[in-house]
Design brief:
- By secondary structure, the chain is mostly beta strands.
- About 50% of the residues are buried.
Length: about 850
């Protein structure tokens, strides 16, 4: 446990219960336990000070040693090829390869196998190899060998590790669950818990690229479920999809391998293979499984039922599918989730060469067909989906905008210079790579060798850099450095910046790199064609802040995700057992308090007090273990019986936590360790005036701003930069008194995004962009302090206040726009 500026506390029993579950346990320590590090697939490390200078040296065949190495901790020999990204968990590192030994030239076709290789994280010693033999033959009726499982192909996924269990897909189209517990305990090799053969059980017809440069599905999980893209594909020799009824996506029970639901939406429209991986998010009030599918559609399914939520066509409707020169693509990349948006670019099998691509940013809260376009025939009737082309304008078909579109922005290959010709670098091209995003900057690498930097919110292009080689890997961000590996074996390192920049270093790894670099526990891992390298400079390794978007849909603030006390969790018990739900854990010794908890990133955060001092505490959500404690400020409450007015759960926004003490100290803490990042004082910095029982503010995060209510004469409401605490704007509400015990809500009313809250003597709406006072309602009693949060629905506000002296009243207002601006209109005021 880490302690920050704390005193000893007496033991007072307090039971803390999580009121909603996270999508998945957050990565333990600084491990990298799944593809893309966590459920967002956004490959941003939490750590600082990564290596930017190393040399793998040269191999001396006479001595059998590597000479001239620098900052190489260890190297582990693989087979002849690696394509799946490595993962790190609990002191072990796992990576897919094959069993070809290049040093001895030992290659027995009869024993050819794909391999999942496990190594000791500290020393690189081999721990265990899971061998998956080559498929011996094809099912009857298929026309040529190797279409499913090419010789020497590697195991091409990243496994998923949760606790002692590991799941992965094999070259044989199997989904496997292993128990790593025996291996961790040093007893024996892992135990196979279950295995499902998707070819034999479901009739899946997997397609493997002849050059083998393609992924297979890396598994994602939610609660007791895992989700697998099967790889069902198109047979070019037969010129058809041999198994259109076979599933493209399967949801398994993660513990038993039982099928819970499946989907075969692409059917006969599959272009080639299906090599991407699913993304799990919580958006639009539902947990979604977002799946890139083989017909070029990105589909979202309800994680519990498999019901379709939305679908998005990654291609423009006039795009044409051709092996050479076509514009119609599908997916190799995996979608990434960042601050409520989904990002993905399209591509094709490497054998089909380069071509134009499309990168999209999508709003996943929509439903139905949310493509940017619709295709209609000459009479205006919707055209059905088709494999080769949907809209043929030579036949009178038309393309029209989709009024239900979920497209936020896109980047496509285009004539940006307006000279009638598309030159290299004008737009983006087909890709194998996932995007990576930090601090609003999106990095994307395309197969043609261009690294692009864009604004994640708008799609504005900041800069491009040509590595002059094909790129199969995805970018990695650690601290403020961007790493990209290419097919020439070069790792290029850039500073993360919107301003165009050149690489600060280029390191030659001496053979092709098809895997993405990862960073875990202070070490950079890079695998070239046949060797896995652990790279570390002797620097002080520090934790950075958590990546954003990990709190999407969680109970990360006062009254939940939208401050309406509505949980977005699904799959809960319909009724409790007679004796109640089982107790998971109990913690004592945290001090006194009544603060509700906030739950985010696998942690529980709460306020408590002892001996007139308040503390913020973080606990592990699964075990209740106290992770850290940070002193918040004085607790000068003179009347303990009124402490119910001081319910102030922290607000968690990814990497940062915000809390306000009873005496008006606002702090921004780092979620990982409770360290202070910045702070403000309501009384000192804003002349804030509290109520009789102290401050009770729960600030709210809106985009890059933290909106709080100090209640000062010139700063009734204030917006601060959430990263630095710098003042963005102040709103002074004349004769409003100080702060109340209400906590405000950000909502769209009358077409304007507003912050709505009760002050001591009035209810107000403020423009979130500039702090302009848009409207106010009522002149309330000075005596009572309004401890209620406004409830907002459809331009209506329902609120409890005290406009008539000591009598509480329920008010309902309509917020309306007129030629004079925005105003409130009282619908009813009930004093009964």
């Amino acid at each position: 446990m880490k302690r920050n500026r704390i005193v000893r506390v007496r033991l007072v029993v307090i039971i803390v219960a999580s009121i909603c579950a996270t999508i998945v346990d957050f990565a333990a320590a600084d491990d990298w336990p799944m593809y893309g590090r966590d459920v967002t697939h956004n490959a941003v490390s939490l750590e600082l000070n990564p290596p930017t200078d190393w040399d793998i040296g040269t191999f001396d065949s006479k001595t059998g040693k590597w000479e001239g190495s620098r900052n190489i901790v260890w190297r582990a020999k693989l087979g002849s090829l690696a394509f799946g990204d490595p993962v790190v968990a609990d002191g072990q590192i796992w990576i897919g390869t094959n069993n070809y030994n290049q040093l001895s030239g030992n290659y027995d076709r009869g024993k050819d196998a794909s391999v999942l290789a496990g190594f000791d994280e500290r020393h690189g010693n081999s721990l265990f190899n899971y061998d998956s033999p080559r498929l011996p033959s094809l099912p009857p009726g298929f026309s040529y060998a190797h279409i499913h499982d090419w010789p020497s192909s590697p195991l091409a996924c990243s496994p998923l590790i949760e606790g002692d269990l590991m799941w992965f897909t094999t070259n044989r189209s199997e989904t496997v669950c292993l128990d790593l517990g025996p291996l961790k305990r040093g007893e024996k090799q892992p135990r196979e818990v279950w295995k499902v053969d998707m070819m034999n059980q479901f009739g899946v017809f997997p397609i493997r690229a002849a050059m083998m440069w393609n992924h297979s599905s890396s598994i994602s999980s939610y609660q007791d479920r895992i989700f697998v893209i099967t790889g069902n594909g198109f047979d070019f020799s037969q010129k058809k999809v041999p198994a259109p009824e076979a599933p493209s996506l399967i949801c398994f029970d993660k513990h038993s391998g039982k099928v819970l639901w499946q989907d075969n939406s692409p059917r006969e429209n599959i272009f080639d293979g299906q090599w991407s991986s699913p993304l799990i998010i919580d958006a639009g009030g539902r947990v979604q499984v977002i799946t890139p599918q083989g017909d070029g559609w990105l589909r979202s399914f309800d994680a519990m039922t498999g019901a379709l939520i939305w679908k998005f066509d990654i291609n423009l409707k006039t795009a044409i599918l051709k092996l050479n020169g076509g514009t119609r693509n599908h997916f190799v990349a995996t979608p990434v989730f960042y601050q409520g948006r989904v990002y993905i670019a399209n591509g094709q099998n490497e054998q089909h060469g380069e071509g134009p691509g499309r990168l999209v940013c999508i709003d996943p809260s929509k439903v139905g067909d949310i493509s940017s376009e619709l295709a209609v025939d000459g009479s205006g009737r919707r055209l059905p989906d088709a494999r080769i082309q949907i809209a043929d304008t030579t036949k009178g078909d038309r393309v029209i905008p989709n009024p239900s579109s979920g497209l936020v922005w896109e980047c496509v290959t285009s004539d940006v210079n307006g000279n009638g010709e598309i030159q290299f670098g004008e737009g983006i091209y087909r890709t194998y790579s996932n995007v990576v995003i930090k601090d609003g900057l999106l990095l994307m690498a395309d197969f043609s060798g261009l690294l692009h930097c864009m604004d994640a919110k708008t799609g504005k292009r900041h800069w491009d850099y040509d590595v002059e080689s094909a790129i199969f890997a995805s970018p990695l961000i650690v601290d403020n450095f961007v790493y990209i590996a290419d097919d020439n074996g070069i790792v290029s390192i850039f500073r993360l910046a919107a301003k165009a920049n050149q690489p600060i270093a280029k390191v030659n790894m001496q053979s092709e790199i098809m895997t993405s670099p990862i960073f875990a526990n202070g070490t950079l891992y890079v695998a070239n064609r046949d060797t896995l390298f652990a790279i570390r400079e002797e620097k002080a390794v520090q934790k950075a802040v958590e990546p954003l978007a990990t709190t999407q849909g969680l109970w990360s603030q006062w009254r939940g995700p939208n401050r309406d006390n509505i949980s977005t969790e699904q799959g809960l018990l319909q009724e409790w057992p007679a004796v109640g739900p089982p107790l998971s854990w109990r913690v004592s010794g945290l001090g006194q308090g009544i603060s509700p908890v906030s739950v985010a990133g696998g942690r529980i955060f709460a306020l408590s007090q002892y001996n007139s001092t308040e503390y913020v505490r973080a606990l592990d959500e699964q075990t209740g273990k106290l992770l850290w404690t940070t002193e918040l400020g004085a607790f000068p409450l003179q009347n303990p019986s009124m402490r119910w007015l001081t319910q102030r759960p922290p607000a968690v926004d990814g990497e940062r936590l915000y809390a306000v003490s009873l005496d008006g100290v606002l702090v921004c803490l780092r979620c990982t360790d409770g360290e202070l990042l910045w702070g403000k004082s309501y009384p000192t910095d804003f002349k804030g005036k509290s109520g009789v029982f102290g401050f009770s503010d729960c600030p709210v995060v809106h985009e890059d701003a933290l909106i709080c209510t100090p209640g000062g004469p010139n700063a009734s409401i204030v917006a601060l930069d959430k990263k630095t605490g710098q003042v963005l704007w102040k709103c002074a509400v004349p004769e409003a008194g100080g702060t109340a015990y209400s906590n405000g809500v950000v909502a769209e009313l009358a077409g304007q995004t507003q912050f709505v809250t009760l002050l001591e003597k009035t209810l107000v709406g403020v423009d979130v962009d500039n702090g302009k006072l848009l409207w106010r309602y009522g002149e309330f009693s000075k005596l009572f302090l309004h401890p209620h949060t406004p409830l907002i629905r459809n331009n209506l506000i329902t609120c409890v206040g005290f406009p008539n002296g000591n009598e509480a009243s329920i008010m309902r207002l309509a917020i309306e726009r007129s030629s004079e601006g925005i105003a409130s209109r009282e619908l009813f005021l009930d004093n009964s």
